[in-house]
Design a protein that fits this description.
The protein is mostly helical and about 260 residues long. It contains ten helices and no strands. α6 runs parallel beside α10. The protein starts with a helix and ends with a helix.
Length: about 260
Amino acid sequence: MVLSRVAVIARTVFLEVIRDRIFYLVALFALLLVLARVLLPNISAGAEDKILVDLGLAGIHLLSVVVAVFVGTGLINKEIEKRTVLVLIAKPVSRAEFIVGKHLGLTAVLAVLIAALGTIFVVLLGVSAVPFSLGSLGLALVFMTLEAALLVAVAMVFGVFTSSLLATLLTFAVYLMGHLSQDLVAFGELSQTPAVQRFTNGLYLILPDLERLNLRNAAAYGFELLPTAPDLWGHALYGLLYTALLLAVASLIFSRRQF
C-alpha cells in the first residue's frame, strides 16, 4: 500500500464531500442550539443547564451518525453505479488503497464537522454561563469521532456488495444493535436458556460494542463518572482495531468483485 496514493484519494473524497454543502449542518446545529437555549427555561423546571449539555452532545452525535451512514454507504456504491470505478481500477491503485483512502477522506470530514459543532457548542455554553468541563466534553467528542469512523467502515462493508438503500438500512441496524449489544448479553443471562445465551454471546462477539465509545452521558457530569485512563485507552484501541478489521473485510470483498 502506497501512502501517497491513499492520501490523494482521501483528499479527493474530503473536497468532494465538502462541496456537497455538508457543513450547512453546522449552521442548522447552531440555530437549533440557540432555539433550545431560548425555549428550555420555560419547559425544563430549572434543569435547563443539564438538558442543554445533554441536548448539544446528542445533536452532535446524531448529525455525525447521519453523515457517516448516508455518505459512507455511497462512497463505493456510487462509484459502482456510475461505472466510474472502471476508470479508477484501471489506474495503478490497488483496491485496498481505494477503500482506505475513501475511508480516511470521509473520516477527516467527520472529524472537522464534529470539531466545528463542538466549538459552537462550547461557545454557546460559555456565553450562556452554563457550567461544564471542557476536558470531559473534548474527550466525548474524540470518542464520538472514533465511533463515526467505525460506522463509516461498517457502511463501506455493506456498500461494496449491496445497493445504497439496503446498505443504509443494514448500517443503521448495526448501529442500533451495537448500542444494545451489552443489553442483549444481559438478556441472554436472564433467560437462563443455553441456546439463547449462545446466540446473544455470538452477536456480542460479532457486532461492535458501540457503548464502549459512548461517553456522552458521563461527560455531562465532568471527569468523575468517566472510565479510568487504562479503560479509555482500551476502548479507543478497540474502536481502532474494529475499524481496521472492517476495512480489511471491505477490501477483501471489493477485490473479489468483477466489473
